[in-house]
Amino acid sequence: MNGANLFLEFLSLFPLKVKGENCINSEGKIFCSRCKEVCPHLAIEFENNTPKVDTQRCTVCGLCFSECPVNVFEIEIDLTEFYKDKTPLKVGCFLSDWELDIKVPCLGMLNEELLTSLALHSGEVYLDTSKCSICPQGGIYKYIKEYIERANLLLHYHRAEGKVKESSQPPESGEEEEFLKELFGEEEKVRKPTLSKRINVPLWRQLFFEKVKLLRAENLCYQPVKEERLRFAKPIFDPNRCQSSKVCSFWCPTRALSSDERGTYFTQILCTDCGLCQKVCPNSALTLEKSFVPRNNVMAGKIPITRSEKKICKNCGREFIATQGQEYCLYCQKDRQMEKLIKDFLFGENNG
Ligand code: SF4
Ligand code: SF4
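That is the input. Now the predicted structure with iron/sulfur cluster docked in place:
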């Protein structure tokens, strides 16, 4: 069997499933095309606004899985099996000649959040990148390098021990540790993370959260971190524009935004920076700020970010939703602003 056939046979063990119905593109509009943009083999096209994968071109590099902000791509691998009581953890692809703890079709499927959760579990994670330069996939290494850098940033911001390293040589195996375990009996096994495929939060975020919530709260950073490269964002509302239409929370695919008659709420760990809320807001009242608070990844749940109450407009008597204690409905507010502008123009000091 030649190399190409071997490659195809190996890939057939890990078919890529596509759950197009989870995609954030709605009827008639394409809001996101990250999977198509990242695919190095041009295997993804949109049909009826949802991604379709050409299996003849797809090499299961996993970049679409790593980049999609919701749960659309699924690789037939039990990710919870990655969490082994081993340190250092040796990870590589099918070309690697290391004695691996985790073998994946391509390292491209391990984005920063997956790598971080592995490092939180195992302490040290070594990726065999020695074969990237001869890999027939091509073009993936730059993503792998970026994911490693971002994973180490995440560990740093969470003040967590652990490191993700790339290497061309296998690390020393924890033989001493193995010996001690044999001598004194196995340590209690660390619980494997659990995943839910019913919610539209990507598996890499779920695994990250499962591991990060075990961190000791007193050691965590309480300061917001602004880091463009990480997939954490926070919607900032302009109270003068927000009309509490709740369109943002209706469309938020991960339920990071939710609302009731008293306001809108935000759960940071669920937000994967998909950008949809900002794009669908009819009043451009919302902008996404790329920041996160490491502590919120562990402790904070749903926090209110806008408050609203039903009021009667003092001018026209119509019922409206006030988001900032306003006394006039939006139409009367605009009329009053216009009236003021005209008065200033006609009688203002600058025009005297
Ligand atoms: S990356 Fe995910 S959400 Fe974005 S277009 Fe592709 S499938 Fe849809
Ligand atoms: S809050 Fe906005 S950016 Fe975050 S997941 Fe929801 S829609 Fe996407």
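The two ends are 91 Å apart (CA to CA).
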